[in-house]
Each structure stands twice: as structure tokens, then as C-alpha cells.
């Protein structure tokens, strides 16, 4: 059995009481205090996440734009320097290779920030389809520590440590060469996140990650900033209806089925992998759709549970939990398109019982 990978911040976990788990081959904190406390702190004050396990792939060269236009579903030509974009890579059948952000660092220079478990697969997929001699593809994941500072007080906490005017960084915008506190290295700071809250993702040299982590936690303590683990990261993203690869998206689930058409530009001039199938799904409607459900009967709809109408299985739960914010048992389910109207009653197979649920509007939590 191979040894678990660790981020540059691993030595800091113990002093904050982290409980770590094996997460896709990484030794990462599931919680520091409790999932519910960390969730509430992020919703009401601020939370700090170590997400250094995420992958980074740099794409540069004269034909880098043309290459990315072929590889991803969104329209990369709309990007400008210091702006980021959410997108997908898909297979020919419309299934999802991965979902990620593209940062346009400057002309002909892009940074892809991909899901940790997919980093090697994504890199190989890109290299496999690289036909331009002028394009270089480099896995630079080991260069970065990545911290996410999220919550209503995130800007106030970070602003106290930098002279960069953070109010000028708009949603999906970023600034490079940001000096933070006494940390020697400068950072790329983007107004992005995975919680449904305002906040920032901070990319810095991996050697500076631990210092940045400690300075942020020390500086933000009086504002209620706490370290947050994977458990609350999942409940936060779930409440905001942000997809998790392997659950709401996969090689068998397309972005259109997942309700993420906004990042699939089937009308862009460039041909991209999976375009024909995705365009058909957009025009005709997919045969399956992702819906939000709330349990009527007592029980939690867990990932993989069957969803039924009468005796017929019509889909399955992709994610589900008791919402810490809403105090309700809720879930996301991929179901037959015939049964997707808000108000439709569905049954979830929970062990030997069929429990009643109802389709509700998405997102669960709107800001």
C-alpha cells in the first residue's frame, strides 16, 4: 500500500487538533473542532481551508488558446488577463473528464486548477490531444500551496494583512504579486471559492504555505476565523449546489445532465471534444437531470441510494446530508427527466425502507 501524500501544511495540522483521513491518497484533515462548528463559522464569520492537494497545470505558447478551445467546453476566448473561468473537459460521449478553473495569467499563458484525484488523468488527457508544437503543458502542482479563506469576514481579515485593495478584485478576478503580512513570497489572490460564501483562494510558493496559514489564523482569530476540514468543505459546497466530481459529475454524467449548461458553449465556433453530444443534450434536453430533494419522511438521502417512483427505479442520489444551515435532510439526485418538476414526490430507498421526499427549487441556499 502506497504512502499517503501530504501537503506542505501537514505539520501544522496537529497544533490545531486536526483529525486526518485518507482522501483520494492524501492525508488531509476531515475536521479540526467539529464539522458543524466549522460549517457555521464559515457561514457567519470565516474559515480557512488547506486545499494544497488541488492540481495545477500550466499551458503556454502561441497556440495555447486554440488548444484550450478544443479541449474545454467554455469559451476561453472571452478570458482576459487576471480573470478566471469555470469549465469542463469532456469525453466524446459527453461524460466529464473533470471540472476546473482556468486562470489567464497573461496572453498565451494559462493556469488550470484541477481536482486533486484527477490531476494525473487530466495532464495525460491534455498531452494526448496536444497537436501544436508551440504549446507546452506542465504539471506544476508541486510548486504551490493553496489556501481558501472563505466567509463574510474573509475580505476584512485578509485586507488587514495586505496593502492590495481587495475590493478591486471582483468575483472570478484575481491579482498576482500580492504581499501578505510578513510572508516573503508574493501570492496570486483570486475571488473564488467552493463554499457559496464570499472569499479568496490564495496561491503561493509551497515553502511559504505554513507561514501564511499561521499568519492568517493569528490575524483573524478575533474575527472568528477557524481552520476548516474536508467535512465542512463538503457540507458548505453541497448547500450551495456546487458539484463534486465523482458524484454530481463523472465520466458517466455530463455537465448538461448536472444542470451546468452555463459553462458549456455549444455555439462557440471552435470544435471541442464532446460538442456534438452536448449540443444535442442542450437542444433536445437530456434524458436525466439533477434535482434537489427534501426528505418528508425521517432519514438522510446518502450518495448512491436509489430513487424510485412506485416500484420503478428512476435515478440515484449523488449527494445528501442533514444541512447544518437549514436543519433539514436534503439531497441532490440524478433522475429520469420525466420526474423533475418542483413538487414531485419521489421515494428514496434507505436500507429496507422507502422514504418519501419532494423535489424543491435549487439552490438550497441562495445568497
Largest β-sheet summary: 6 strands, mixed
The CATH topology of the domain at 10-54 and 143-239 turns out to be Gyrase A, domain 2
Helix content range: 10-25%
Shape: globular
CATH superfamily of the domain at 10-54 and 143-239, called what?
A: Probable tRNA modification gtpase trme, domain 1
Q: State Rg.
A: 21 Å
* Number of helical stretches of at least 4 residues: 8
Number of strands: 19
CATH architecture of the domain at 10-54 and 143-239: 2-Layer Sandwich
Mean pLDDT: 97
Distance between the termini: 44 Å
Spatially, the strands of the biggest sheet line up as 10-11-12-9-3-13
Class from helix and strand fractions? alpha+beta
H/E series: HEEHEEHEEEHEEHEEEHEHHEEEEEE
The CATH class of the domain at 10-54 and 143-239, by name, is Alpha Beta
The poorly predicted ranges are none
Strand content: 25-35%
Specify the oligomeric state. single chain
List the helices and strands and how they pair.
Layout: H1 10-13, E1 19-23, E2 26-31, H2 35-44, E3 46-50, E4 55-60, H3 64-71, E5 83-90, E6 96-106, E7 109-114, H4 119-128, E8 136-139, E9 144-150, H5 154-159, E10 174-178, E11 187-190, E12 199-205, H6 209-220, E13 225-228, H7 230-239, H8 275-284, E14 288-295, E15 306-309, E16 312-322, E17 329-336, E18 345-350, E19 353-360
Parallel strand pairs: 3-13
Antiparallel strand pairs: 1-2, 3-9, 4-7, 4-8, 5-6, 6-7, 9-12, 10-11, 11-12, 14-17, 14-19, 15-16, 15-18, 16-17, 18-19
Amino acid at each position: 500500500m502506497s504512502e499517503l501524500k501530504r501537503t506542505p501544511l501537514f505539520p501544522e495540522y496537529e497544533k490545531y487538533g486536526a483529525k486526518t483521513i485518507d482522501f483520494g491518497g492524501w492525508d488531509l484533515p476531515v475536521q479540526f473542532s467539529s464539522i458543524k462548528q466549522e460549517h457555521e463559522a464559515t457561514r457567519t464569520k470565516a474559515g480557512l481551508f488547506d486545499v494544497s492537494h488541488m492540481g495545477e497545470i500550466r499551458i503556454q505558447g502561441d497556440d495555447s488558446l486554440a488548444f484550450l478551445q478544443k479541449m474545454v467546453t467554455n469559451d476561453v476566448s472571452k478570458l482576459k488577463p487576471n480573470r478566471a473561468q469555470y469549465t469542463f473537459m469532456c469525453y466524446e460521449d459527453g461524460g466529464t473528464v473533470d471540472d476546473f478553473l482556468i486562470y489567464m495569467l497573461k496572453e498565451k499563458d494559462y493556469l488550470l486548477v484541477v481536482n486533486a484525484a484527477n490531476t494525473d488523468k487530466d495532464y495525460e488527457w491534455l498531452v494526448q490531444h496536444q497537436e501544436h508544437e508551440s504549446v507546452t503543458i506542465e504539471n506544476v502542482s508541486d510548486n504551490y500551496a493553496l489556501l481558501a479563506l472563505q466567509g463574510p469576514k474573509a475580505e476584512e481579515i485578509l485586507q488587514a494583512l495586505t496593502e492590495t485593495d481587495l475590493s478591486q478584485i471582483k468575483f472570478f478576478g484575481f491579482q498576482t504579486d500580492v504581499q501578505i503580512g510578513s510572508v516573503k513570497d508574493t501570492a496570486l489572490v483570486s475571488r473564488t471559492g467552493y463554499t457559496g460564501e464570499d472569499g479568496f483562494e490564495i496561491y503561493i510558493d509551497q515553502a511559504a504555505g505554513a507561514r501564511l496559514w499561521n499568519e492568517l489564523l493569528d490575524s483573524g482569530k478575533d474575527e472568528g476565523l477557524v481552520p476548516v476540514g474536508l467535512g465542512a468543505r463538503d457540507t458548505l459546497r453541497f448547500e450551495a449546489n456546487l458539484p463534486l466530481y465523482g458524484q454530481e459529475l463523472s465520466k458517466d454524467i455530463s455537465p448538461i445532465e448536472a444542470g451546468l449548461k452555463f459553462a458549456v458553449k455549444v455555439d462557440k465556433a471552435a470544435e471541442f471534444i464532446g460538442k456534438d453530444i452536448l449540443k444535442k443534450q442542450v437542444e433536445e434536453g437530456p434524458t436525466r437531470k439533477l434535482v434537489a430533494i427534501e426528505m418528508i419522511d425521517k432519514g438522510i438521502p446518502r450518495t448512491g441510494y436509489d430513487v424510485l417512483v412506485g416500484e420503478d427505479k428512476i435515478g440515484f442520489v449523488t449527494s445528501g446530508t442533514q444541512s447544518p444551515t437549514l436543519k433539514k435532510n436534503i439531497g441532490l439526485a440524478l433522475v429520469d427527466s420525466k420526474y423533475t418538476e418542483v413538487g414531485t414526490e419521489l421515494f428514496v430507498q434507505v436500507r429496507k425502507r422507502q422514504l418519501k421526499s419532494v423535489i424543491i427549487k435549487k439552490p438550497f441556499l441562495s445568497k
